[in-house]
Structures are given as structure tokens and as C-alpha cells.
Amino acid sequence: MTKTLGWIFGAACVVALACGQEAEKAATPQVVAEAAPARSPAISQAAKDEAKEIFASRCAACHGVSGAGNGPKSGELQPKPRNFQDPEWQASVTDAYLERILVEGGAAVGKSAVMPPNPDLAGKQEVVAALRAYLRRLKD
After folding, report:
1. For residues 6 and 8, what is the distance between their CA atoms, to the nearest angstrom?
2. Which segments of 55-122 does DSSP mark as H helices, in order?
3. Could you report the per-residue pLDDT of 35-91, keeping only the tens digit for each?
4. Dihedral sign from CA coordinates of 107, 110, 115, 118
5. 55, 130 Cβ separation under 8 angstroms
6. Contact at 8 Å (CB) between 137 and 66?
7. Domain spans of the chain?
8. Cis before residue 117, ω within 30 degrees of 0?
């Protein structure tokens, strides 16, 4: 009887282990899919146009028309405006970080309050995404 119980227990352990391995294999793609960055939805041409106009009217005075941090007002600012063309800096910041600065200003992320907030963009997620994408392209 003890031998039979031992065999049943051993078989149950093998089945449980096999089931656990199958469950782990089945869960792996799901975990990988959840860890992968979400693709940004397509940005409309209207949002891209508005973002380009916002950059020209609000950002270029300090950051320059090409985003090099050399706009007409840059000489009087401390700290100097960010050079968006810097690939190392571009690689060091997330999209969420850029979008937060664009809406809430530099002070919101522990940077200079000289970078003003744009609270009117808070309800315009697509325009903020387009502006962030525009800044990302300046490094090219």
C-alpha cells in the first residue's frame, strides 16, 4: 500500500511539474507582450501641423528653429536652453518625460522654471504627442 501511495504521489508530482512548465510556457508570450512598449497611435496631420506651429511660436525663441538651443533669447537665459539635436540627451529621456515637460514645464521634473508650462496643452494629448515626435526628429 505504501509503495502504491508513493507511486501515486510521484506521478502526481510529475504531472504537476509538467503542467506548471506548460503554464509557464503559455504565460511567457503574454509577459513579453506586456513588457513590450506600446506602439504610438498614428498622429493626424492636423496635430502635426499644430505641433509645428507651437514649436515655431513658443519654443524656437529659446531653443532655436532647428532645436539646437540657440534661439534669439537663449543668450540671456540661465541655464541655457536644451539642445534637442544632442543624440545622447535624446537617448537619455523617455517620451513621457518630454510630454510632461511640454505640458507642466521644467519645474515639474526638477529642471529650471525658465522652461514654462503649457497648461493649454493638457487636454490635447495628440498635439503633445506630435510635439514630442517633432522634438525627437530634431536629432536626425
Report:
1. 5
2. 60-63, 87-92, 95-104
3. 334 455 799 999 999 999 999 999 999 999 999 999 999 999 999 999 999 999 999
4. negative
5. no
6. no
7. 1-36, 45-137
8. no
pTM: 0.70
22 or 110, higher pLDDT = 110
pLDDT at 6: 44
The length of the chain in residues reads: 140
Q: DSSP readout, 5-67?
A: HHHHHHHHHHHHHHHHHHHHHHHHHHHHHHHSPPPPPPPPHHHHHHHHHHIIIIIHHHH-TTS
Mean pLDDT taken over the chain: 80
- 10 Å Cβ neighbour count for 11? 10
Longest dimension (CA), the chain: 91
CATH architecture for the domain at 45-137: Orthogonal Bundle (1.10)
Distance CA 17, CA 97 (A): 44
